[in-house]
Amino acid sequence: MVNRRQALMVLAGCLAVATVFLAYYTVETFAYREFEMIHYEVEEIDHSDVAWTLEDPDEYILAAIQNEGLSVRARRNETNFIDQVREHGDVWEIEYNGSYYYVVCLGSCDPHPTPDRWVLPKYYMINNKRGVQTQVAAADVSLGGLWIVWALGWRKLTP
Amino acid sequence: MRRRSVLLLLLALACLVVAPVVHASDGNWRVFVLVAYDEEWHTIANILYGYTAEELALVLIHSINDRFYIFDIYFSPAEYTFWDSADDPESYNEMMDEVLAETNFNNQGYKWVLIAFTGQGIPGAWGVCDWAYGAVLVEHAYLNGVGQATDNILQHELSHLYDAPDHDEADLDCVMNNYDYWIGFPWYYKVPTALVTANWCDDCKTVINENNDWWGSWQEGGSGGGGGTIDLYPVKH
User: Fold this and answer.
1) ipTM
2) A111 phi, psi to nearest 5 deg
């Protein structure tokens, strides 16, 4: 028979595994890679205090702005918007023609690298801080709650 | 008597109309498959699904056959082989080159294809297709908010062997569509649309249907075997 103390030990083990997975996912999400393709998608926002003014847009970020909500793909060597973001301290909120935008950015490999090879690419988040922050916060709260339950149970059972 | 004659005439006419249809679907392009799997695939099949590596491969290929049925294409696993994948490949190209080298795959005049399964991550890719060799490399995928997607990856890569192109188009319900599909709360990430649909668009259906003779050989009598094989050597390019 499994007593309550053993059950709590199992729970602690599960929590530890979940924590490791979460940490791996977070690291994987923000891992820097050399991408061949960049995807932009913009969302108009009311205002931003940190936004910088986009003065020299390349055709791809311009297409993303003109087609809000649609993902626009560019070859890495053909777009310089991502370089401009780096120059502005990794700020993904921009002001263009009096409007403010938040830019979601993904990176991937070339889906057709050679005439004979086709690739179904994985998409890596270069910037999707809002979504990831929400997810990480939700996961942290859940894990934190479970740890508190475990700690209280452990304390109660420890003489 | 007259009524009986009319009925017989109608029956004969019905046979004439139905016969060509039955004949047209009475066979398929049988593509023999060399199935390769690595040690990680073996582990996933055992632990996650309770199958052997070969059983899991077979289940997936059967599900793909249900989809390619409309093109009279039938993938028939003929041999299984183990592939010792390197644990830390630099790129998808390296991984594909490795599986081709290790299996020493020979497509025997476009009659065979290689389906290689891996349980480890392919760097930067869910799947790779090498048109010249007739080989596809597919990663096991079970994703948050999506579920099992290995069958869709396999379908996508095999479709490339029949010249179906990639699409990049919002809201296009096609397994060849690479357009970003948003997996919302609570996961917040994007995958190619190919991972969430098993349908082909009309353009892709037309292309695959036109090229269904590129691989394999015509087998009379459906997927159950039997009948004579007409050895055709399709012109691929």
Assistant:
1) 0.83
2) -70, -15
Best B178, B179, B181 member to test A by mutation, with max A CBs in 10 Å, is B178
Best mutation site among B94, B128, B190, B193 for testing chain A: the one with the most A CBs within 10 Å?
A: B190
Residue B107 above 90 pLDDT?
no
Pull the structure tokens for residue A122.
Answer: 């994985």
What share of chain B in percent tops pLDDT 70? 83
A90: left (phi over 0), alpha (psi -120 to 50) or beta: left
CB contact under 8 A, B178 and A113: no
* Residue B140 near residue A131, CB atoms below 8 Å: no
CB contact at 8 A, A39 and A72: yes
DSSP for A43-110?
EEES--SS-EE--S--HHHHHHHHTTTS-EEEEGGG--HHHHHHHTTS--EEEETTEEEEEEEEEE--
For residues A133-139, give the mean pLDDT. Answer: 62
Secondary element (H or E) of residue B213? none
- Checking if the pLDDT of A88 tops 90, the result is yes
Q: What are the Cα distances from residue B131, in Å, to A115, A133, B160, B169, B214?
A: 8, 41, 7, 23, 11
Question: Smallest Cβ distance to B186: which of A41, A109, A138?
Answer: A138
Integer Cα distance of B21 and B19 in angstroms: 5
| Count of CA atoms in the C-beta half-sphere (13 A) of A7 | 7
**Per-residue tokens: A145:** 């709650």
Show residues of chain B in contact with A135, CB under 8 Å: 186-188
Q: Is the pTM here over 0.90, yes or no?
A: no
**The pLDDT of residue B103 is above 90:** yes
Q: What is the pLDDT of residues A60-71, one digit of tens each?
A: 999 999 999 999
